[in-house]
Amino acid sequence: MKETDVITVSAVDDDRMLIDGLDAWLAGVSDVRLTGRAATVAELLVTERSPADVVLLDLLLADGSDPVENVRTLVRQRRRVLVVSVVTTGDMARKMIDAGACGYLTKDHDLAALVAKVREVAEEGVAISPEVALGWLADRDGDRPVLSPQEHAVLLAYASGMTLTAAARSAGVRPGTAKNYLERVKDKYRKAGRPAYTKLDLAARVREDGLAT
């Protein structure tokens, strides 16, 4: 396997036993490697030798930092974040995804499930624990699609009135990639029973779901 095929992971968690267990377990996984560890987000950003492909972020850290701000801080650094937590509510998962996290996994899963979610996030997917997703769909906001950070960024730029090319530049992607993201967004809204065919439709969905706030 080429070095470029390996998914690098950094973990922000103050549970040293969990991190050590993850490190030992990954020794037998060919395509995922733990390359960084820290007890806080601030510590990770200072000590990490190079940005990992995926950051595993515990929801509740001993330093009392705000989980939403932790996610936002990492996202501003263009990091792909998978939140790992003992909290199982769909509402909390929604807050993390809205803040820019690419996934939310509860800690009652085994390490094999964690690695599977890491792979999903590394491939630019949105990875959420099945039981959390079911609770999410059952709440009153269940018709609101889950968008990846990249889909969200392109949607906001495009719906604000930018051309596709300008929206792509704003989101830091190629126009063809931006077009694919928009098609995914439209498909997700269609499946949620809220079709969005035009730029005006997309702008309306942004307002309805408060995505620009």
Describe what you observe in this structure.
The modification 4-aspartylphosphate is found at residue 58. Keywords: DNA-binding, Phosphoprotein. Pfam families: Response_reg (PF00072). InterPro entries: CheY-like_superfamily, Sig_transdc_resp-reg_C-effctor, Sig_transdc_resp-reg_receiver, WalR-like. This is DNA-binding response regulator, NarL/FixJ family, contains REC and HTH domains. The protein is an alpha/beta fold and 213 residues long. It has two domains: 3-137, Response regulator (Rossmann fold); 149-209, Arc Repressor Mutant, subunit A, CATH 1.10.10.10. The chain has helices at residues 16-26, 41-47, 67-76, 90-99, 111-122, 130-138, 149-159, 164-171, 175-191, 199-209; strands at 7-12, 32-38, 54-58, 81-85, 103-106, 127-128. It has a six-stranded parallel β-sheet, with helices on both faces. The longest helix is centred in the last third of the chain and has 17 residues, at 175-191. The protein is globular.
Shape: globular
What's the domain count? 2
What do we call the CATH topology of the largest domain?
Rossmann fold
Note the beta-strand portion: 5-15%
Question: What string gives the helices and strands in order?
Answer: EHEHEHEHEHEHHHHH
Number of strands: 6
**Pairing-aware structural class of the strands and helices?**
alpha/beta
The CATH architecture assignment of the largest domain turns out to be 3-Layer(aba) Sandwich
The CATH superfamily of the largest domain turns out to be Response regulator
Order of strands, main sheet, comes to 2-1-3-4-5-6
Largest sheet: 6 strands, parallel
Instruction: Write down the oligomeric state.
Output: single chain
Helix content: 40-55%
Mean pLDDT: 86
Helix count from the secondary structure assignment: 10
Protein name: DNA-binding response regulator, NarL/FixJ family, contains REC and HTH domains
Keywords: DNA-binding, Phosphoprotein
Domain Response regulatory: 8-122
Modified residues (4-aspartylphosphate): 58
